[in-house]
Design a protein that fits this description.
globular; Endonuclease Iii, domain 2; mainly alpha; single chain; 2 domains
């Protein structure tokens, strides 16, 4: 993220200014070449799991498709639900994966050329029609695939935990309260979220 984001956050929020000083430059690097299909599958895998557990499940999942760095939607017809279940996915997540696949093939999930032309809320409205895909899942796509600068995932445990630690709160903030507080960070809320994720890390110097 650019220097303007760091300048703005430092000017409007002394706690954020301290995080920026102590953690250093924002190292968030979106992956614009990633497909929407891949982003949604990755986000579903990470739902309600620690990153390491999700990574292990995804590693086994990708091994179902030799010769592919990541499967394409049409490849999913080659594997059974039982094979996906053996990777560690729950049945509810398997149902989500199947619906993501179906809606990608039908065009309901916009392709890479289409999605970049859509506004954030339009993308959220469209993709949350997919089974198992909520606002948080789409926000991860907006941040890590599209690199949208003003996304604040207030339902994210790491963001809320980082806020509690950095701002020395006794309790986790409610999403609506965090959303209200975060108005000061706009239009650079994505960068603020990244610093809150770092603040949630046990080794963050805060």
């Amino acid at each position: 993220m650019n220097a303007a984001a760091l300048k703005h956050l430092s000017a409007v929020d002394p706690v954020m200014a301290r995080l920026i000083r102590e953690i250093g430059p924002c190292r968030l690097e979106p992956e614009p070449r990633r497909s929407s299909f891949q982003s949604l599958i990755l986000a579903v895998a990470h739902q309600q799991l620690h990153a390491k557990a999700a990574s292990n499940i995804l590693g086994r999942f990708k091994k179902l498709f030799p010769g592919r760095r990541f499967p394409k939607p049409e490849d999913l017809a080659q594997v059974t639900d039982e094979q996906i279940r053996a990777c560690g996915f729950s049945y509810s997540k398997i149902a989500a994966i199947r619906d993501i696949t179906e809606k990608t093939l039908s065009g309901a999930v916009p392709n890479s050329r289409q999605i970049v032309k859509l506004a954030d809320e339009a993308i959220i409205d469209r993709l949350t029609e997919v089974r198992g895909v909520g606002r948080w899942t789409v926000e991860m796509l907006l941040i890590f695939q599209l690199g949208r600068p003003d996304v604040l995932p207030v339902d994210d445990f790491g963001v809320r935990s980082g806020f509690r630690r950095a701002y020395k709160k006794r309790a986790m903030p409610k999403p609506k309260d965090l959303l209200k507080f975060g108005e000061r960070w706009r239009p650079h809320a994505t960068t603020a979220a990244w610093y809150l994720w770092r603040a949630a890390d046990t080794d963050a110097r805060i």
